[in-house]
From TrEMBL:
Coiled coil: none annotated. Keywords: WD repeat. This is Neurobeachin-like 1. It comes from the Eukaryota. InterPro entries: ARM-like, ARM-type_fold, BEACH_Domain, Neurobeachin_a-sol. GO terms for cellular component: cytosol; membrane. The keyword Endoplasmic reticulum does not apply. GO terms for biological process: intracellular protein localization. GO terms for molecular function: protein kinase binding. Residues 298-541 form the Neurobeachin alpha-solenoid region domain.
Length: 604
């Protein structure tokens, strides 16, 4: 305390000894080190009080400007605290002291200084100030995300609830200074380096991922306003580094995903912001009116950036819905009119010149995510939007790519369309849409590819055939075959073979009549090209294959399916017998349910 030079020398020596713990780069996973920094009890007596006074002196001298020596000391102090917090047993005690508030005060002033110097176009070297800011933000991370949950999340590693529950030490309680600090940093943020903005976003994500208590304190109307504003500015790069701006958008979206997941696990009295409010602003930004922008900004380059941002936002919807409370979040999305917003996005994007197909693919992915495993969501989509409408919207974008058609296939099986035999039909409507679209496709290769896949997926088992028959797929196939001049012969043969397989399951008189009418030609003496394959299909329908089976039956495939009978008020005797035939069809394997607690049907 009496010898500042000796104190600095001691701090220098301490920091040098544990320098490997100064992992201030948020983009890197923390380095695994066998050794740990010492506990507070092993430090010299009263060292924390001495350092608090030194830090306070630095804060008080900030307004007049710190000398180079004092700048070096303040950085050294922050490094010391980071190292100390890497011994997780020290985190709680360090967090309870006033160090963090002093560091935040200094960081606020430094960031304001950096903005002012950029605004005034000063070219002086700001490296020492930036270095302090980066270390100060890393110190905050050490306190509020001691296990580096956020770094692991952005590296692609997701911690389970069990893994989080095993984390012995809790993060320090979030200082009330954080939200005003975060908000102020992003005021006039165009004068702040993109890399520093990314560090601030990393810190916000770390606080949210570090623990629920701090997360709910950090997620406020002010911080959500900041995130939406940062996202809105990501289409305006000006002189910024495109990679850094893209990374800024990616981090903001990851923060929003983490926020939505945290809000789902909280009660209404704990939340400062509702998920529905976040989604309302999110969709407003996703469908923002570009026509209101001044002409200089509406260039081809800007369009490309704006569409890239929209695609990132659409992909984030899928990430948001990848959570344990998915049904709850799906209901919130439905109440936010997400289907209308997504379809409007497709309709509005026609004014852009390029990248339409990528945008359409991401939109279909988002729609699939909202409807995934939810019969209620599928019904809402049919009622509010309808597949006929989405077909017209997609068709208006021009000839589809293979990727877009494959995405519709994925929507039908709610997974990878190539996993035929593992995944069955979860949503039959996209299949009807694909059949209708076949004559419009100029590429014969695409016609053959789609018709061949449809034939395989629709005929894979009795369940799939029944689903297609109940959706009136036979009539849709016949309507498509009427446009035979636009269909490749192999595509037509695949559709007729599919029709024969579905007909062997069930074929009504009206459908049979339509099929026979299909073979009429304007020249009586000239046979229709479909005569031979159609006759083969009719013979296949009439031919009994395999074991005899009932033509009418109850389908108990769904997990909640069952037969309810009224209670027996008067028994006919002392007992009764019940007889039934059971057809145990070959079931498809659902990867999501292959666990130790697998479900099974019961008769009782």
């Amino acid at each position: 305390q009496k010898d500042p030079d000796y104190l600095k020398l001691w701090l220098d020596s301490f920091v040098s000894s544990y320098e490997q713990f100064l992992d201030v780069d948020f983009e890197k996973l923390p380095t695994r080190v066998d050794d740990v920094p010492p506990g507070i009890s092993l430090l010299p007596d009263n060292i924390l009080q001495v350092l608090r006074l030194q830090l306070l002196q630095c804060v008080q001298k900030m307004s007049d400007g710190l000398e180079e020596q004092q700048q070096a000391l303040s950085l050294l102090l922050v490094k010391f605290f980071i190292i100390l917090c890497r011994n997780l047993a020290n985190v709680e005690e360090i967090g309870m002291c006033s160090y963090i508030n002093h560091v935040i005060t200094m960081t606020t002033l430094y960031i304001q200084q950096l903005k002012s110097k950029t605004k005034e176009k000063e070219v002086a070297d700001q490296t020492p100030i930036e270095e302090f800011v980066r270390h100060a933000l890393a110190f905050c991370e050490s306190l509020y995300d001691p296990y580096r949950n956020w770094r692991q999340r952005i590296a692609g590693r997701f911690l389970s609830t069990v893994e989080k529950s095993r984390q012995k030490y809790k993060p320090a309680s979030l200082t009330v200074e954080f939200v005003p600090f975060f908000y102020q940093c992003f005021q006039e943020s165009e004068h702040l380096k993109e890399s520093l903005k990314c560090c601030l976003l990393h810190l916000f994500g770390a606080i949210v991922a570090g623990g629920q208590r701090n997360a709910l304190q950090a997620v406020s109307p002010a911080t959500m306003e900041v995130l939406m504003r940062v996202l809105a500015d990501c289409d305006n790069w000006d002189d910024g580094n495109p990679e850094e701006v893209s990374r800024k958008a990616e981090l903001t979206l990851k923060c929003l995903t983490e926020v939505v997941h945290i809000l789902l696990t909280s009660s209404s009295d704990q939340r400062q912001v509702e998920t529905s409010t976040i989604l309302e602003n999110y969709f407003k930004l996703l469908n923002s009116d570009h026509s209101a922008l001044p002409n200089p900004r509406r260039c081809r380059q800007w369009e490309s950036r704006f569409i890239a941002l929209q695609i990132q936002m659409l992909n984030t919807i899928t990430a948001m819905l990848d959570c344990t409370d998915r049904p709850v979040l799906q209901a919130i999305f439905l109440n936010s009119n997400c289907f209308e917003h997504l379809i409007r996005l497709l309709q509005n994007c026609k004014v852009f010149q390029g990248h339409l197909d990528r945008l359409a693919v991401s939109t279909i992915q988002a729609l699939t995510a909202v409807m995934h495993k939810s019969p209620a969501a599928k019904e809402v989509f049919k009622e509010r939007i309808g597949y006929a409408h989405i077909y017209e919207v997609l068709k208006s974008l021009g000839q589809p790519s293979r990727e877009l058609l494959e995405e519709l296939m994925n929507m039908a099986v709610e997974g990878d369309h190539m996993a035929v035999g593992i995944l069955g039909i979860s949503n039959v409507q996209p299949l009807l849409l694909l059949i209708q679209w076949l004559p419009e496709l100029e590429s014969h290769d695409l016609q053959i590819f789609i018709s061949n896949w449809l034939r395989r997926i629709c005929c894979i088992n009795r369940q799939s055939r029944a689903t297609c028959v109940n959706a009136n797929m036979v009539i849709r196939i016949i309507e498509t075959l009427n446009s035979h001049s636009a269909l490749h012969c192999t595509c037509a043969e695949n559709l007729i073979a599919l029709l024969g397989s579905l007909g062997s399951q069930s074929m009504g008189s009206e459908e049979l009549l339509q099929l026979i009418r299909l073979l009429r030609t304007e020249e009586p003496k000239r046979a229709h090209p479909y005569v031979v394959p159609v006759m083969r299909a009719i013979l296949a329908m009439a031919r009994k294959q395999g074991m005899a089976s009932a033509l009418q039956y109850f389908n108990l495939y769904h997990s909640m399916a069952g037969i309810a009978v009224p209670s027996i008020h008067k028994w006919p005797g002392s007992a009764f017998s019940f007889n039934a035939w059971l057809c145990l069809d070959q079931d498809r394997v659902d990867p999501s349910t292959t666990s130790k607690s697998g479900k099974r049907k019961q008769l009782y």
